[in-house]
Please model this.
Amino acid sequence: MTTRADDVALYLKRRARWSPFEIAFWIFAFATIWLFPGKYLILKDTAILALFALSLDLILGYAGIISLGQAAFFGLAGYFSGLVAKYGFINEPVIALLCAGVIAAALGFVTSFLVLRGSDLTRLMVTLGVSLMLGELANRYSNITGGADGLQGVEIAPIFGLYRFDLFGHNGYVYCLIVLFVCFIIARRIIYSPFGLSLRSIKGNNLRAAAIGIPVKWRLVSIYTVSAGFAGIAGALLTQTTAFCSLDVFSLERSADLLLVLIIGGTGYLYGGLIGAVIYKFLQDWIANLTPQYWQFWIGLVLVVIVLIGRARMSAWIGAVRAFFNRLGARLMPRLPALGGAGSEGH
Amino acid sequence: MPILQTIGLEKRFGGILAAQNVNLAVEPGARHALIGPNGAGKTTVINLLTGVLRPTGGRIEFEGRDITGLLPHQRVRLGMARTFQINQLFLDLTPLESIGLVVSERLGAGANWWRLVGTKAAVTDEIVEIAERFHLADVMHERTAILPYGKQRLLEIALAFACRPRLLLLDEPAAGVPEAERHELLATVAALPKDVTVLLIEHDMDLVFSFAERISVLVNGALFVDGAPDEVARDPRVKAVYLGEELDA
Model:
């Protein structure tokens, strides 16, 4: 009995252990700082998109809430961080970033009650509606937001008063990557906690989740709020690293791109948004270099092909890559058992 | 005082009365069965008791407390858990994760987003205890979706049991279980601890008469007969209802 309890405890702990795939992923992510010094701008955009996609994965992949309105939080926090910097309310970028996240989370909390109701289609419409309204408000109050010209004259102070946002984007990229990593760790912690497990159960079967005593509504409100906060941090990063904010932070395209990213990368294993963002950004970059005018045609084609191949097959490929790294890791570090047998994550 | 009592419970779906004037009393520690022909409203009653449906009339009391207006998860916290006639499981989770989920939820850790699952000894010990009681220890690490049906049925009950209810509502626990796996399931149900009151909704008369100490018969949404098994078995009206059904079938 006790050995079995130990067995269970070990299994549960191992479930949340960093696998070799994950370690390799992050080592490579941080290595890009030295490996690709000429690519900081696109890398930085990728990191921001990855964080933004992570925010959607938290609600879509773990709680089953589909949204076309993550741009609402992205945009609100983007303008917030631009305005506080422009008028000098909060000069320190990291504090401004946290405040922007809190503001976006507050909006997420308020709008979550609209999202709780109804089916997927209702949710798509409600979330889309919220971001459209915010976008139009930003347009209407152009005296504050700069309207169609965008928010001009934003000056971002050095991070902690030490690291200036340089012209090459080095510090900006490192900043975004660190923020992404910190947010990722928080997200990872959340999904391996009892709270995260209860979210997965709600996604799996909300009738039963309620029947075992889970307050389904509050759990969904919580994760939606957290997700909005993450989306907001992504939006604030964009404003801070570009010292500019325009109406397109609220655009439908921004939310729709996010769904594309998650379709490419897969949902429900946290890395989908990250891998999807890398593929999406570099594909976009590569195609745009080949055919600057018609790059969206090729993106569209890739999307159709991906859907035809099927998400299941794609995630199987990604799963194979992870398994490879895990085997490799198991060989290199025999004392660290691979997670291959867990089988419960992903897909 | 009955652990569960309904007073004039009624549920109307448009023009149809699915439950009318149901006055049911379940005594603490009882092995109580609710039976009735197809369409008698058994599942409606259990959905009313657990809060999945809102009654259009009457009251429900649990341990003397009016729970008519409470949400399903609030009733679970008071000590009332149910199983479903059609399995409602978390197919992507393993039995270990599913049971662990219920246990940590009950111990109040469900909203904790920082601690990792399984770092508390109280939780892991209880997971093991429940998995063994329900013969799930061997399949703890398998995905629920690939378990044999009989094991899924056991997990269905295990999840409700893990809520540590004082009242357990079993909705046709043996439904659809193949003969080979049936014995394990029935033995497990029979071995449920005596301090857990069980209200069994069942079609299978062998199970009802071997298990129940008291039987309530529901016909057309109303309580028809209520009594000890031998009284109910002898009751000519019950025979008529069941024979009638068999003749129709």
About this structure: Chain A touches chain B at residues 1, 4-6, 8-9, 11-13, 15-16, 189-190, 192-198, 200-201, 204-205, 207-208, 210-216, 218-219, 222, 341, 343-344, 347 (CB under 8 Å). The two ends of chain A are 33 Å apart (CA to CA). Chain A is about 75% helix and 0% strand. Chain A has a mean pLDDT of 86.
